[in-house]
Here is the input.
Amino acid sequence: MIMTVLIGVGSGYFLWGSRVARLTEALSTLTLEQDTLRERLAAPRGEQPQPAEGTVRATEELHAINEAITGVRNELSQQKALVEKCQTIATAPDVEAATVELRKLRTELTACIADKQDLEVRCSGAAAPTPPAAPAAPTYFPR
Here is the structure.
């Protein structure tokens, strides 16, 4: 019976120990935050307690992070402007190039129509085309 109880307590400690540790840490942090808040509220209006060294460092780190975020936002806005510029250039119609291409296509179409008509005339005009003449047989000289 004692072994069963010890096994139960041991397994409970190993299964729930990490959860209890996290809960204890969270409660300790909450207690520290409440104490800090009480100190600030208890201080007279003109007098504010001096921030701790960690708070100053955290403020400096936040300032550095905010500067980095601002830099990234500026870079993104520049890239957005570049993409929009490229998009307007790509979609803007180039009238002169389109006109030259259209003339080229019309010339090719005219040539194709003329070739088609020529082929139709050849097919309908001649019943059967004459095959080319066979080559002459080679002559062999006796030895």
Summary: The helical segments are 2-42, 53-91, 95-125. The chain has a mean pLDDT of 78. The chain has three domains: 1-41, 53-92, 94-124. The chain has three helices and no strands.
